[in-house]
Amino acid sequence: AYKHVYQMSFPEAIKAIPADLALHPNSKFKRSAQIAKLFIDEARGIVSMIPYGVRAKLVHKLTPKATEMISRDRGERRMQFKETRVSVKKDFKYGEDERQKFDVYLPPARSIRRGKKDDYDDDDEYEEREEEAENVRVPMAVFVHGGVWASGERWQFAPLAHRLAEEGIVTAVISYSLYPEKSAKAQAEEVLKALKCAIMNAKLFGADASRTHLVGHSAGSHLCAMALLLDEEETQKKESEKLKSFVGMCGVYNIETHYEYEDKRGVAMLSTMGRAMGGREKFKEMSPFHILEDRSSSSSSSSNSKSRSSDSGGEDNDDDDVTKSSFPKTYLFTSDTDIVVPKRESEDLHKTLLKIGVDSELSVYDHGTHGEFALGFKKRPKPLRAFHRDLIEL
Questions:
Q1: d(CA 42, CA 265)
Q2: Least confident piece of the model among 85-89, 190-194, 236-240
Q3: Contacts of 269 (CB under 8 A, 6+ apart)
Q4: How much is the pLDDT for 304?
Q5: Selected residue with higher pLDDT from 84 and 288
Q6: 90-111, pLDDT tens digit by residue?
Q7: H-helix segments, the chain
Q8: Which residues contact 360 (CB under 8 A, 6 or more apart)?
Q9: Res. 78 pLDDT band, cuts 50 70 90
Q10: What is the pTM of this model?
Q11: In contact, 234 and 201? CB cutoff 8 Å
């Protein structure tokens, strides 16, 4: 059910059909049949996701509204953890545009944990639970959805956020302006803005800003990586320096190679990726892989120059630190069975990150379709897939 999602945006794919057919002047009928099959397959995938969509909508609608309280000891405003239920603060604005909002899911007080192995299920441990819930700061995940840069709504990821909150993690699900309204670069800027807003308001959400994890899926992973790279260009103090980790699930990091892969599958023109990037001439500058590869080359050159300068008594160069500063600890999740974004994307980025000194871990699973990484979460006490468990344990 999950393998067909996020391959195309129907409205944008329809717009691209004339240009696609123009590339096949001698086989328009054959290509039309291929396009029809692609649309049918995508439609079947969407139909198969209807039960999930209903569940996601219900989770989003029925999760209790979070309420604010005043901390007893500090007099600070903060959201109140309900004792046994996940709650949500919807439509928290990080900008003025309509889609510049996020929903924040708060864990129940019973699930708050101070460490990975803590599990507060014993009522005896909650004699002073209200005071404890006020003072404990929990981890926070800021989730960025995929959707070929042209689709995706916050409510669609309510099951993911709800389960993470059940596990004791404050979870912010952001939305951002979509293509064609905004380009991928502008979307990355919005992601960075949302991340900084979430970190700045961590105390309000009862979260520990220094335990913030930026989590992306598919196109969302690309936007997260680009946001981290854009942050390095800003001159003001970086809120994202507080990030504990970046988690990229099934992400696209090399636009050139992924475009070639999509072309072989016959979806390159129909996909919004190339257009969202600004055309082929922008592929490299919109690829985290290429940006970091270029910095790696520059760093190597600087290291050689620094070595020669040191030998001659010159000053040291800080380029190595600048190159590494974009990314916190990085975890890349991918699957052997992902046919939408092949594992090569994560493998290549992982190698590049290691080359420039970033602490990166790559996990390649032998199960899990592309969509399942973000849409396969079940409510407690149902068991989690391995990649979901690994995400929670970070």
A1: 13
A2: 236-240
A3: 16, 19, 20, 23
A4: 55
A5: 288
A6: 999 999 999 999 999 999 988 8
A7: 10-22, 28-48, 50-62, 129-135, 158-166, 184-200, 219-233, 255-264, 273-277, 288-311, 319-324, 344-355, 372-375, 386-392
A8: 327, 329, 330, 331, 332, 349, 350, 353, 354
A9: confident
A10: 0.89
A11: no
Residue that has been written with the tokens 């510049």 in this structure: 100
Q: Quick one: which of 185, 181, 170, 176 has its CA closest to 152?
A: 176
Which residues, listed in sequence order, are joined to residue 365 by a DSSP beta bridge?
A: 335
Q: Report which residue type is found at 153.
A: E
Q: Tell me the C-alpha distance between 38 and 391, whole Å.
A: 32
Q: How far apart are CA 172 and CA 122, in angstroms?
A: 28
| pLDDT exceeds cutoff 50 at 118 | no
Query: Ramachandran region of residue 272, left (φ > 0), alpha (ψ -120 to 50) or beta?
Result: alpha
Rg (alpha carbons) of the chain, rounded to whole number: 22
CA distance 55 to 6: 19
Those residues whose C-beta lies under 8 Å from the C-beta of residue 296, and which sit 6 or more positions away, are 323, 352, 355, 356
Q: Which residues contact 306 (CB under 8 A, 6 or more apart)?
A: 316, 317, 319
CA distance 21 to 9: 18
- DSSP one-letter code for 148: T
Alpha carbon distance 198, 102 (integer Å) = 9
pLDDT value at position 125?
A: 44
Q: What is the mean pLDDT of the chain?
A: 86
> Do residues 170 and 207 touch, judged by C-beta distance below 8 A?
yes
User: Please, which pLDDT band fits residue 70 given cuts at 50, 70 and 90?
Assistant: confident
Task: Judge whether residue 351 has pLDDT over 80.
Answer: yes
What is the CA angle 262-264-268, rounded to 5?
35
**C-beta contacts of 44-50 below 8 A and 24+ residues apart:** 44/4, 45/1, 45/3, 45/4, 45/5, 45/7, 46/4, 46/5, 48/1, 48/4, 49/1, 49/2, 49/5, 49/371, 49/375
**Has residue 311 got a pLDDT over 80?**
no
Strand partners, 106: 87
Question: Left, alpha or beta for 231 (phi > 0: left; psi -120 to 50: alpha)?
Answer: alpha
